[in-house]
Amino acid sequence: MKTGEGTRHPARRPASRRGLSEDSPLLGGPAPAPDAVGASRAPGEGYDPRSGELDLPVSAPTRAGFEPDERQLRELIPAVETGRQLDDWGRSQRVFDLVEPLLDFYYRVWFRVEVEGIENVPAEGGALLTSNHSGALPPDAPMIMQAIRREHSRPRPLYMLGEHWFKGYPGVSALTAKIGLVAAHPANAQRLLADEQRLALVFPEGIKATRKLYWQRYRLRRFGRGGFVRTAIRAGVPIVPVAVVGAEEAMPIFAHVPLLKQLTGLPYFPVGHAFPHFGLAAALMYLPAKFRIHVLEPIELSHLGPDDAEDVALVQSLAEDVRNRIQAQLEQMLHSRRSVWFG
To answer: N or C: which end of the chain has fewer CB within 10 A?
Structure first.
């Protein structure tokens, strides 16, 4: 492109100020010798990945028959951080150990959890625990997790399959993942239950359960379309129903504010005993309701095959059976409860 006589060219910065020598090929100097970038090396010779002019990694020769040294490639992989104890799902044992004293306080002192039927949780192999869900910021999942860790003869990690509706809020999504929350996707469930033979917890009522008002407590909503049943059938694992009493009173919801729901982007904006007037501090202001957890007998599905997961009638029938079992157990527990606070 031609320029007029009056055109002023911007001054070129001195090479020394940019960290380059006058002989650098980037400034028009002589090109480096072929051996400087490894182009003339014969196949099988040692290859230095940082032999470039600027001491930056350069591409390995693509000559036919060339095989890079695996030891050198292995050096490029970051070292394992043993202190993090992070598994493939993002669960960090180190983080869990940090929050466990708080979970133990709620479990033993605040909610005074009583557990029945914990032996129904399989000591080995995969299993899908299915529970009722309730209360804003529901504490039922952490308490079920602690019940297995503290009361079972063979404690095992419990992963929670749930929706990441809070993934847009800084810190919250990362923390929940580190204590065992996994996105509720069929592929994740299959790998957890069938491939890795782990315990997973699911709440078939979904978000509908956590937005129930106080007067609707312990009335189970519809268990979706039976997706949890399909998951268990495909993975070949039993369904273990779990009934929880106490969560509805620990964080009750008295009303909803639709306008604030739209402004905040939350799935719902509840009004309770502590929120919104105490702000974020409300997350730790549970009422000291007495918790009771009853683990029912497992429902074996090993006699069913993957094709049965596509039988809509069968899936809906099993889902309704699980729902009825949990509802009946809840009604029995509520009938025998003398006090919300003392059990």
So the answer is: N
